[in-house]
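Note to self: keep these together.
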Amino acid sequence: MKQVVLLAGLLLLFSCNMTQVKDEPQEQPALQVPVAYAEGFTIADHGSFKLIRLSDAWKGEKTNYQYVLYKDQAPTGYDDAIKIRVPVTSIACMSLTHIALIEALGKENTIVAASGCNYSNSGKIKALVQSGKITEVGSENALNYELLAQSKPDVVMMFGINEASLKYVNKLKTMGMTTIMNAEYMEPHPLGKAEWIKFVAAFFDESEKADSIFSVVEKEYLSLVELTQNINNKPLVFVGMPWNGNWYVAGGKSFQAQLFQDAGARYLWDDNEERSSVVKSMELVYDKAYDAEFWLNQNSYGSIEAVVGYDEKFKHFRSVKTGRLYNNNKRMNEFEGNDYWESGTINPHLILKDMIEIFHPELLDHELYYYQQLQ
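Structure:
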């Protein structure tokens, strides 16, 4: 009899525990959102919320930024994360690249404040600034905190260059503002930079739209890469202009170096392992670039005469003698705002088209969009 009572008690206890477990809300297993090229962020979809992790906000930065995006109720835990209700309805942007990604999503009307508005080449953004819907708030070193606060953005999307950037990030936090770090510029692949549209879209609850946009860009880019895969004649190209006695060139693992490779060219510094810019002496560049077939990205220079005017030695370069100088400033406004660095973020396929047209014009029938040949 005792055994029967004991067995009944155990069954009752087990039944209660099962009911208790069943009634408790269970967090869904996280699904990793596909991110194929971008290295700076991950998105985990937990069903009722998304967890975004961002690493390497700038070179050498080891802080892991986390954002919990929720619609109805913020999840418990995740004490180190910034919790944001989505979709956000207003945003301040500290970079034109952020604006380009937001505009690609059709969310430009949510921008209430921005930095460097005069440098934008977007007609929509200019119209919003002129109508007073977007307020210019200055740059990092001269940020107008009062105007930014008056704009009342749900979030402020910003970027960092070094530890000094934390000064104004922390200042905004003390003002009660929610900040989001965006490190798109750190990506070593052009498609990686464009894929940050998935990061931006998550804050607007527009992930499906971002996937669709990126899929089109990726497909177009990869189809262009196929055109150059079997090319044997790969011309040598170098970039840049001297500045303060030195020559800053794109690193051998940078997105620009990747573009040259995908366009069927050989980059002068392709053996370099840096992702960011690299300082070279003018003498070294003179020696190595002397016989290169192409010279690209001469800052804001608009003619061969102006380039040679900087240094008469340039007239002996092979690229100058043959007139193969191309600059990415075709779409530059009166304030020297260059659309290559704005809309080019989400249009790497158009940049690649330009480069293939420059290096291998026989492969495409394409009118240069971001680039122009210097005369």
